[in-house]
Automatic annotation (TrEMBL):
Gene3D superfamilies attached to this UniProt entry: alpha/beta hydrolase
Claim: Transcription regulation is one of the keywords in the record: no
Ranges for domain AB hydrolase-1: 6-221
Name of this chain's protein: Alpha/beta hydrolase
Domain of life: Bacteria
GO MF term set: hydrolase activity
Sorted UniProt keywords: Hydrolase
Matching SUPFAM superfamilies: alpha/beta-Hydrolases (SSF53474)
Coiled coil: none
Source lineage: Bacteria, Bacillati, Actinomycetota, Actinomycetes, Micromonosporales
Annotated source species: Dactylosporangium darangshiense
């Protein structure tokens, strides 16, 4: 049976996952759904979709409409937050979740970067291990900030209740983090993983906040290997991978 993935982008917008979606579909032989969050890239945002939880409910309904099953949800940044909330809704269509440098939890001593007060250059510096290789489109970013502020809240991009609620995630979970993430550091990621029962935590070396762009080979290897193994670990496991290594 063809594996179905729901790939949820972060504040960088749908273009930040487009190339990875194509690779995942081609190399994993999978069906990949990569929607644009309402309000991003000039799309309309219905008034009732005004929070991350509401957005998660929107994607629960989306999966119901499609009638798909055994879905692996992959979310980067705020997309990871959405994926976690979607898992907490208990949809029987969601089999497992992959949180890639997710935000949304509050971890003492490890705050999420004040994204809304950073310049495009500062965002690039915080987002990549080698920021000089990647450009940030200020016009597109400015257009998406409004929708991001509605969903995630300005300036914190956290829900103080989420960390405790993650104990209720019923699905196997993989948490993947770039060791050079300047938006949310790897200790933040570790806390995210430890809050989810049985979650596996994998660190990608020489990688920032957007592994699907900066280290797609490493991310693809980790995701494919983990999905194939259908993990049922009782405690968080940690691995450190370089961009040249697989799982």
């Amino acid at each position: 049976m063809t594996q179905t993935y729901l790939l949820l982008h972060g504040g960088a917008g749908p273009q930040s996952v487009a190339a990875f979606a194509e690779r995942l579909a081609a190399e994993a032989g999978a069906r990949v759904l990569a929607p644009t969050h309402p309000g991003f890239d000039g799309t309309e945002r219905p008034a009732h979709i005004d929070s991350v939880r509401a957005l998660a409910a929107h994607y629960r309904d989306y999966l119901d409409e499609l009638g798909v099953r055994d879905v692996t949800v992959i979310g980067n940044s705020i997309g990871g937050w959405i994926a976690a909330e979607l898992a907490l809704l208990g949809s029987p269509r969601v089999a497992r979740i992959v949180l890639v440098d997710a935000v949304g939890v509050e971890v003492p001593g490890h705050p999420v970067a004040d994204f809304f007060n950073l310049t495009p250059a500062q965002i690039a510096a915080a987002s990549y291990y080698e920021p000089q290789k990647f450009a940030v489109d200020p016009a597109r970013m400015a257009g998406n900030r409004t929708a991001l502020a509605v969903y995630a809240g300005e300036p914190s991009m956290v829900d103080p209740t989420l960390l405790a609620r993650l104990q209720g995630v019923p699905n196997p979970a993989l948490v993947v983090w770039g060791d050079s993430d300047g938006i949310a550091d790897s200790d933040y990621g570790r806390a995210f993983a430890e809050a989810i029962p049985g979650a596996r935590f994998v660190v990608l070396e020489r990688t920032g906040h957007l592994p699907q762009i900066e280290n797609p080979d490493g991310l693809l290897d980790v995701v494919r290997g983990w999905v194939a193994d259908a993990p049922k670990a009782a405690h968080p496991l940690t691995f450190h991978l370089t961009p040249e290594e697989g799982l």
